[in-house]
Amino acid sequence: MLTVDNYNFKGKKVLVRVDYNVPLDENLKIVDDTRIVASLPTLNKIINDGGAIILMSHFGKPTCGYETRFSLKHIVEHLSKLLKRDVKFADNCIGEAAHKLAQALQPGEVLLLENLRFHREEKESDMAFSRQLASLGDVYVNDAFGTAHRNHSSTAAIARFFPNDKMIGLLIQQELEILDKVLLNYNRPSTVIIGGSKVSTKILVITEMMKKADTIIIGGGMAYTFIKAMGGNIGSSMIENDKLDVALKVIREAIENGVRLVLPKDNIVADSFSNDANIQTCSINDIKEGWMGLDIGPETCRIFSDVIKESKTIMWNGPMGVFEMPKFSKGTECVAKSIVEATKNGSFSLIGGGDSVGALKMFNLADKVSYISTGGGALLRYIEGEELPAITAITG
User: Fold this and answer.
1) Is 312 a catalytic residue?
2) Looking at the domain that runs over 13-171, which CATH code has it been given?
3) Given the residues 108, 232, 358, 377, the one annotated as active site
4) What is the model's pTM?
5) Is 198 a catalytic residue?
6) What is residue 89's three-state secondary structure?
7) Residue of 198, 302, 309, 312 with catalytic role
């Protein structure tokens, strides 16, 4: 397989699919540029070789054509600073104007196309749309791991138009290497920490990691489905009543596979979903009606922390509570700090999923773990053993 490392881009116009779906504030300024920074090694390799770059990305979820707040023009100034050169902008990703701008590019120049999702054909894997995008470049590089699980025009279909000149970028290459390190070549004991709100969105990950991990920690809102399934009283806490049997099956499988399944013992409960609510600490099995669990409690923090600190390989996906509210952030912060301490002592830590990454950044700990994945959905699909269409389109 061709890679960015072993390809010479001199004199080539290189169509690069990136993931610049980054958060903006109310003034349309970038809040977190992690995904943009992550694309720089691939872009700099192309520039240093003497290639010209045509960047394409989706941005947000526009519903009916052009919407100003979803325009990639808001990215241009910051990207120009990072690349140390003026980035040109095309106000459409296809059409005559975009084609002229792409054709006029000189070696070392960079053109950013407008949001792909202003065209409904992008999500439909439309071949005519893909052909128009492909006509802009000589080479296709996919470096958007965050969309690798999407079978879209710019991520999968387009690769058919580059039978001999298509490759994954350095970011995707690194993501896959890190995932293999955690899933195949890991040091033991290994621990997987799964949080978030719903069992239904993580059940395949839990089931798959049951074959690999020594310990699985369950936290966040999804824990209450497990607690109720075992006969506990969870008050008004989040619950998926149609997943109680699934939770019991996970518990049985953990026992059968010799995997330690660690559930919360206590939690912080509130009488309303608000940072101004009345709160108290109680056993997670005995929550009064009208009260809801919004974070793990201090005993659980100690238990989770001890497990994490004795682990040599750690993967974390999903917060332990409603960490955006200060009253319910301590559990997630405890887990984050424990992972940081384990990493400092030589463990390998992989953090994936927007909320987990957001929590790390909120606690100023993002630079103290081994690796932060840029792909939430793609990361989970890869762990579940599913095909990633954008990768398969290149590797065959």
Assistant:
1) no
2) 3.40.50.1260
3) 377
4) 0.90
5) yes
6) strand
7) 198
